[in-house]
Fold this protein.
Amino acid sequence: MAVCIAVIAKENYPLYIRSVPTQNELKFHYTVHTSLDVVEEKISAVGKAMADQRELYLGLLYPTEDYKVYGYVTNSKMFRKLHNSFTDVMCNPFYNPGDTIQSKAFDGMVSAMMVQAS
Amino acid sequence: MMSPTQWDLPPELCCRPMAFVALTGLDVTYNAIHRAIWDAFCANRRADRVPISFKVLPGDHEYPKCRTKRTSYEWYIPKGILKTGWMNKHLNLVPALVVLFYELDWDDPVWKEKQSECATKVEIVRTSLQGRNTKVAVVLIQKKTPLPPGEDLVASERAASLCNACDLSGKSLFVLPHTDHLVGYIIRLENAFYEHAQTYYYTEIRRVKSHKEFLNKTTHQLLFVRHQFKIAFFSELKQDTQNALKYYRTAYSLVHELRTHETNMLEIKTMAGFTNYKICRLCFQHNTPLDAIAQFRKHIDLCKKKIGSAELAFEHTAWMSKQFQSFGDLFDEAIKLGLTAIQTQNPGFYYQQAAYYAQERKQQAAHMCAHEVRYPTPDPLETLSGALDFYGQRAWRQGHQSIDPPDAEKEKVGIQALQVKEKDVPHSELIIALLSNAVAQFKKYKCPRMKSHLMVQMGEEYYHAKDYTKALKLLDYVMCDYRTERWWSLLTSILGTALRCSYLMAHVKDYITYSMELIGRASTLWEDQKSRIEKNLIKVLMNEVPEAEPDCDPASAKAAQALWSDRVSLAGSNRFTIEVQDYVPFGQFILLLQCKLHLYLKADCPHPVRFSKLCVSLSNQEYNQFCVVEESCKSQDILEPLSQENMCLVPGKTRKYSFKFVAKTEDVGKKIEITAVDLMLGTDNGRCVLLNWRGGGGDAASSHEAIQAARSFRSRGRVPEQHAQWDTVSIQASTMIISRVPKISVQLSHKPPALSNEMYCICVSIQSNEKTVAKDVKLTAGLKPGQDANLTQSTQVTLNGLEVCDESHPALLPDIAIGDLQPGEKVHPLLISDETVTIETVVPFDVAMKFVSTKFEHLERVYVDVPFLLMTDILSASPWPLHLVSSQLLLAPTMVALDEPQSQVEHVVLQTGECASECFSLQCPPVLNGTSSVASGQYLISWKRKSSCADAPVVTTVVTLSHVMVETIPLYVHAELPSFGRVRESLPVRYHIQNRTGLVQDVEMSVEPSDAFMFSGLKQVRLRILPGAEHEMLYNFYPLMAGYQNLPLLNISLLRFPTVSGQLLRRFLPSRIFVKPQGRQAEDASIAAA
């Protein structure tokens, strides 16, 4: 189960970020932010090598001691759910692309994916 | 550098083990030869030389005593895993080989004595090495170059005898001739030494292995580890790294098979760490970095939970930190030797993790060592030897391997001592060093965000270490990264630390800056926190001491209060200018439009803000005075701002200020830019802060917000007029001042197309519709510059309508001063109004000319002294009627007119397409040589446009007439005959034949008969004409028929000039004549035949 889920805009700022409340929230934010280094590097490498084959799966980003950080994964159910929910958010005519996500449905879905705080 | 701590790996573990060879019998201080030999061994050792560490020892050096060999392990209980001195002993104390150097030549006179002395020395060494397998070798230093082996019989005999005396095998006796090739001999020697050393370590490995059969698994577990470690270490000394790795791996798994309990946990971890270090090191050395990483991960996973004593938990984190650090070092070292690392796998991660454990350690230390306890006496950490016997054991219970500590009281005191000691560890220093190591690595592997994150941690660590200046420097550095990336949550947290730093240092300016950003919209703080910060900010503005930040160390906060009080009492340095462009405090926008300036201000802080001055600086500072709002306020106003006031910003509401000014004329064509907007908070007499926005305002967040707002559906519709929707305003920081289009009308009246060469008249009328007087009106008229050069040269302009232009007139008349233009006044010529007229130009007429004979026959050439006609045709091509005033023929000297030429086209008006012709009778005087081309002259036509006003100037167009060929002829004939004849009436015809040569001419003439005429006269005659003379022939023709009749042909042939044919001469003669029918009327006046 996930402890932190974040959706990041293409300009690298967070559209949505949520972590389990029991832990140090800031630490997760930093972890997400630093893992963008790898995302950036992977995306730019993909851009060079194979522009057409858009590989959404970025895999394990950072092997940190305590957690594993994964980039967008389409081939697991968990991320497909997240993607679908994100698509729903984007389809909302009242949502302005680039704004932070404030959606109850999205919140609920993310909560379901996370480690349940006891 | 920090002094080595308990946790640093011992140097003998980290070095590369090399075979130890001791050299004795060398006096390197006083003997130059010995010195040279020693230098050859140890100086400048290159990598390709065998790995041996040499040491010079005296001949009677005492080597470590060898303990008596144990025959049975039955009752032996080991006290620890590895003795602390063991590695060093085999690296530096117990040699694999002792070499005795001895000066002895084969032919030494006192051979016997020397031989026995040498044997004694060997014996001394042997005694000292009692019980060890260390080899002994003897090197004879000789002055003479030895003969090839086998040739020197004395040498081989004495060598054998020496070996015998010293109890040496022949392989252990060497000869070192002290000659030029010393280094070469030395290299051969050391290779031989190396072989001996390898044999020694091989036997050592065998010896340790042989112990195994005596061990049992219950009591001798520690020995299994020890022996494996030793075998591996000896293998390394033997340079057999593959086997060394194998044995270390076995040792490593054996360590983890040991029973662990609180008392031996540290020892096990220490040994596990050592073995792990060796394994990783060898893996990197074998260029299998993935094996190294896998081993390290395994090691960490196995040891992570082996915390040991809870009261000494900081020891575990210290150890963990060290594990990561030393792996990072190994990794980094391997990279320096050519290994390539990647973004997600580089030493930085290990340093980062090391730093993380160091931070943990610090926290645990702070937690566990908080109690005030004095260091216990006697020192429980002191041992008899000053060092521990075994790695990883406790000083107060060395060699103890039972599960429970032997003495609970001692244990307690020992732990206490360790805790007190831990207090003195410079934790922050350690953490910062590790973090900066990690930063350097992440910088190298393109991880800017990781780098920023680590720098934040460094900054926070500096903050904890109370080095606020360094902390602020680091935090400031990364703040803008987070700001541009728009990670507000992280930015807020950094700002919080920075605010505390600036508070504790009482840095007023920084404090204000951070406060403003923290209460701004980028901050993710809760309203109550923002409110608290803003209240503090207001206090600072009122020159008071702000409340302490929460989470500040109470002692430091107290010190800070004092600092602030000092700041308050200082009168000066109370003005601050803060560049807010790069922060996200308030928002501000500007719209500049036609010298009307709208300034929108919005505050995002929780409380209303009162400011005392707002001014806009423009690129031309003269306008600045128009763009100021100022209202002095009492310090009371800052506290209690009235939201209705003009100078008050209500949170979330947009306030609009409009300024107006009139652009100066010198700024026409320039760009006016807003260079800065200043907002003054506070008062001049209290503390005052000038917020300065560069350019058109906005801040680090606003450009993105503007984009989002533009996309948003909310931007459309329902905009309350006073509080104009913030999002809809876009920054326009500059405007172009252009001159207004003058209210002046210019009318040009003219009649195109213009005729070339004509004085084309254009009437310009200018009318000013301005309300005021237009001053210094100037007109520039003429050809538009930049056109074809020929056109510029051939076009002239004049203001005087009656004058005819010539070359002296320019093509452009610039800046014709017209003076002032009264409103409504109508003046010819004007102001900066640009009018370009394209005038089509047509050629007014074509002049064609031709030379014809008197018979109107076209002439290719004319003949000297023979009259001919020049005909000119003027064909009008102008759309306007042309008035030809007159025409004139200016003849060249080579032509003469036969009569006074008078213009025949005077005052003729030509309509389009009409043609006027003239005819002049001319003659050419003789030319020098037979034929030549002569100029004819010029034809002048004076004309003007018929339609234009009467006083328009007359233009004279000059047409140059073409050249013509003139030819001299030898004979000239012309006839004299009436203009017409009448049927049956005599028609006298007189032919004149002229000799134009200087010779007598024989001429044959004949008249051919004709049906139309009868005639009388000489039909055929041959005559002579003298030079220059003329002969006359008279014929009487009698016409028989009416109408045009061909005259009888006259044939003339010149005998001297056969080229001059009758045909040519016949040209000069009329060929026919009109014959009237017979009538009764009387003859009238004759009509010109032509």
